[in-house]
Design goal:
By secondary structure, the protein is of the alpha/beta class. The protein is globular. The structure holds (4S)-2,6-dioxohexahydropyrimidine-4-carboxylic acid and zinc ion. Zinc ion binds next to loops.
């Protein structure tokens, strides 16, 4: 039995750090484990210009503990009338690493998102030309579509034609939650990859309703049937370079989650690597964790691998029931439980 692994320091290819007073506390949870992270731009107002991207990056760097050696990778939020020069300038000047397509009203702070993907075809044309990755929240939003089917229908109604029209556009299908998405990525060419969260690997949809409504297990895309969780685990440990780590850690205060209309998102940043190690261990695939966490992501983005090392040991980590941040309380993923792995930097 493997009791300890030493791997390259990982990166998080999808995280929400928020802004304002929350940011200064939240960022250090991510920076303690990850060297780099792709920072989601769904602020209010969202990050739609290169200048805003630069300012947001500055405030992250001002907030983070400098001894952690953390690099934020910024993302442009696409809107129906996004100025493609902002995307081009932001990318060429090294401010933006990627651009994010939120279908309008698909999730938190997405009301300014894209109402029809054809509205941004000129920007996608440009991104394909300059090699800038498109990050997808892959869910349709029509009211008649069942919430559990939104991702599978997105593949058929949006993604297939997007790939046909932009065959060399680099696409990350974010936080995949279905076997359909895993199969689609496996079968597509190497320009399409996917991130997988620890909560979509850990939970099935019963977790939202276990003995009563469980708002802390509510996220978007919503966690699905057991067969999907099994398929995601298979993809994560497959050794395919198309699947890599993206926590989608998305903190909301306890009040905002435990409400008549609770916010979507799990806060998994404090014990993210412990949560992934638990899953890879359960799948007898600890030998695949390093590539998933620290190699396939940078390879897809064309970035160097991290040289620092981190350690995961088979030792219990007690996850607190609640974490106080400024004057807010946040309930973390695995709240009040032990995870049988412990993360440390070397
Ligand atoms: O659960 C989620 N929370 N999914 C998203 O797509 C957005 C995120 C957030 O920003 O809270
Ligand atoms: Zn997200």
């Amino acid at each position: 039995m493997t009791d300890k692994i030493i791997i390259r320091r990982p990166d998080d290819w999808h995280v929400h750090l928020r802004d304002g007073p929350m940011l200064s506390q939240i960022v250090n949870f991510t920076a303690k484990q990850f060297k780099r992270a792709i920072i989601m731009p769904n602020l209010t107002p969202p990050v739609i210009t290169a200048e805003k991207g630069m300012k947001y990056r500055e405030s992250i760097l001002k907030s983070v503990d400098p001894s952690l050696g953390f690099t934020p990778l910024m993302v442009c939020y696409l809107t129906d009338d996004i100025d493609k020069d902002e995307v081009r300038i932001g990318y060429n000047e090294g401010i933006f690493t990627a651009a994010k397509l939120y279908p309008a009203n698909a999730t938190t702070n997405s009301s300014m998102g894209v109402t029809d993907v054809r509205n941004i075809y000129p920007t996608l044309e440009l991104m394909q030309k300059i090699g800038m990755p498109l990050l997808l929240h892959g869910e349709v939003t029509q009211k008649h579509v069942d919430i559990f089917d939104r991702e599978a229908i997105f593949i058929d109604e949006v993604l297939k034609s997007l790939i046909k029209d932009f065959p060399s556009l680099k696409i990350v299908f974010e936080h995949i939650s279905t076997s359909e998405a895993a199969d689609f990525v496996f079968e597509s060419n190497n320009n399409i990859a996917a991130t997988i969260t620890p909560h979509h690997l850990e939970l099935n949809r019963n977790a939202i309703f276990e003995g009563g409504i469980r708002p802390h297990n509510y996220c978007l895309p919503i966690v699905k049937r057991e067969k999907h969780r099994v398929a995601l685990r298979k993809a994560a440990v497959s050794g395919s370079s198309k699947f890599f780590l993206g926590t989608d850690s998305a903190p909301h205060s306890k009040d905002a989650k435990e409400s008549a209309c609770g916010c979507a998102g799990l806060f998994n940043a404090p014990f993210a690597m412990e949560a992934y190690a638990k899953i890879f261990d359960e799948e007898n695939s600890l030998d695949k964790l390093e590539a998933f966490s620290s190699e396939f992501g940078p390879q897809f983005y064309g970035l160097p691998l991290n040289e620092e090392k981190v350690m995961l040991e088979r030792t219990n980590t007690a996850v607190p029931a609640e974490i106080d941040i400024m004057n807010k309380t946040i309930v973390p993923f695995h709240s009040g439980n032990n995870i049988p792995w412990k993360f440390s930097r070397l």
